[in-house]
C-alpha cells in the first residue's frame, strides 16, 4: 500500500489474511450487574483482573471516521476499572507520532495500541516497543513486518467491495441489461483498488449487470458532490451506484437531489450516522451502506487488555489472542439499521 501522512491516506488500512468476526469477548465490560451496555459492548463474561496501562497513539481527528476511532478507544477504556489509558494527542505527522510512541515506551506502559500515520515509517518504533517487551496492537494501517506487532486488527477493503457488489447484484438480478456506476475514493491508495476489485469480482456472478462508469473522488463532501454531478451528467440511465465512503456520500446525495434523480439505488461505505439516518428514513436513493467499523478501536482496547492480563479470546480454544483479526464488511440496510445506529460516526 502506498503510504501517506495525509488525512485521506490515513482513512483506512490494508486487509489481513485471516477473517474473524465477533471473537473479541475475552475482555468485556466489568460494569455492575444489570447495567445497560452500549450497542457495541460484548457480553460480560469475566471479572476485573490485573491492572493494565494501555498506551494509545491514534490519528489526528480531522475526519469523521478518524474521530470515531479515537472516541471508540477512549470510551471502551472507561468501561474497565482495571485499565488506565495513556492517550496521545493524535497526529498525522509521522515524526510527531514516533515521538509520542517513544514517550509511551519510556513510560513503560503495559501494552501499546497504535494506528500509525504511516505504517512503513512507524514500523521501527513498533519493533522498538516489541523488543522492549511491550506488546503492540497494530490498528488498521499495518506495519511493514509482523515482528512490529503482536496483533493486527482492521477492516476489509476488498470485502467492502464484495459485499456492495453482492448486495447490488441481488437487488438487480431480475433486471435485464442492468447498469451500475461507481464513485470510488482516491485512486492512488491501495485500499481504493481493493474496494473496486472486490466490487468487480462480485459483479462477475451477475452476467446481467454491467458497470458503465467509474469516477474517483477524494473522501470529502465537496469532491463527492463534484464527481457525482459529473457522473450524473455523463450517465443519464443507470440502476445502481456504489459509493466507497459515506463522508463523500453526503456530497453525492446533494448532487443527486439537485439533479432530481431517484431512478436508481445507492450503496455507501464505512458506516456514518448520516448514512444510517438516511437509510432509516428511506426517503432517498441511499438504501444501504457497507461497514468499515471504527468500533475496531474499541476491540483493539479489548485485545490490549487481554494481552496485558495474559488472556485469550472467549469462544476460541487457544490460550492466546489471534495474530490477525479482519473485521467483516456487513451490509446495513433498512432491515437492520436500528441495530447499528448507535455505532454510526459523525
From TrEMBL:
Pfam families: Peripla_BP_4
Superkingdom as given in the UniProt entry: Bacteria
UniProt keywords, alphabetically: Signal
Annotated Periplasmic binding protein domain residues: 54-311
Annotated protein name in UniProt: Sugar ABC transporter substrate-binding protein
Gene Ontology MF term list: carbohydrate binding
Family classification: Belongs to the bacterial solute-binding protein 2 family.
Compartment(s): Cell envelope
Family matches, as SUPFAM superfamilies: Periplasmic binding protein-like I
Amino acid at each position: 500500500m502506498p503510504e501517506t501522512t495525509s488525512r485521506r491516506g490515513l482513512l483506512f488500512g490494508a486487509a489481513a489474511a485471516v477473517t474473524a468476526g465477533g471473537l473479541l469477548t475475552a475482555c468485556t465490560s466489568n460494569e455492575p450487574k444489570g447495567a445497560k451496555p452500549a450497542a457495541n459492548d460484548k457480553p460480560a463474561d469475566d471479572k476485573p483482573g490485573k491492572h493494565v496501562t494501555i498506551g494509545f497513539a491514534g490519528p489526528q481527528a480531522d475526519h469523521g471516521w478518524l474521530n470515531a476511532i479515537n472516541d471508540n478507544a477512549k470510551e471502551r477504556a472507561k468501561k474497565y476499572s482495571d485499565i488506565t489509558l495513556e492517550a496521545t494527542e493524535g497526529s498525522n505527522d509521522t515524526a510527531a507520532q514516533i515521538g509520542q510512541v517513544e514517550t509511551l515506551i519510556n513510560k513503560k506502559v503495559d501494552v501499546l495500541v497504535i494506528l500509525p500515520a504511516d505504517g512503513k515509517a512507524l514500523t521501527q518504533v513498533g519493533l522498538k516497543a516489541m523488543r522492549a517487551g511491550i506488546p503492540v496492537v497494530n490498528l488498521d494501517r499495518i506495519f511493514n513486518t509482523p515482528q512490529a506487532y503482536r496483533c493486527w486488527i482492521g477492516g476489509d477493503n476488498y470485502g467492502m467491495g464484495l459485499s456492495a457488489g453482492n448486495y447490488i447484484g441481488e437487488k438487480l438480478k431480475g433486471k435485464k441489461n442492468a447498469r451500475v456506476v461507481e464513485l470510488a475514493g482516491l485512486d492512488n491508495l491501495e485500499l481504493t483498488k481493493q474496494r473496486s476489485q472486490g466490487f468487480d469480482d462480485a459483479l462477475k456472478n451477475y452476467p446481467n449487470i454491467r458497470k458503465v462508469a467509474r469516477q474517483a473522488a477524494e473522501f470529502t463532501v465537496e469532491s463527492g458532490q463534484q464527481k457525482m454531478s459529473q457522473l450524473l451528467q455523463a450517465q443519464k440511465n443507470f440502476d445502481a451506484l456504489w459509493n466507497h465512503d459515506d463522508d463523500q456520500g453526503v456530497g453525492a446525495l446533494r448532487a443527486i437531489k439537485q439533479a432530481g434523480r431517484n431512478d436508481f439505488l445507492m450503496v455507501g461505505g464505512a458506516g456514518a450516522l448520516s448514512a444510517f439516518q438516511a437509510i432509516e428514513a428511506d426517503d432517498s436513493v441511499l438504501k444501504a451502506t457497507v461497514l468499515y467499523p471504527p468500533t475496531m478501536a474499541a476491540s483493539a482496547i479489548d485485545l490490549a487488555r487481554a494481552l496485558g492480563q495474559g488472556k485469550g479470546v472467549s469462544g476460541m480454544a487457544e490460550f492466546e489472542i489471534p495474530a490477525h483479526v479482519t473485521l467483516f464488511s456487513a451490509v446495513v440496510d433498512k432491515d437492520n439499521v436500528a441495530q447499528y445506529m448507535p455505532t454510526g460516526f459523525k
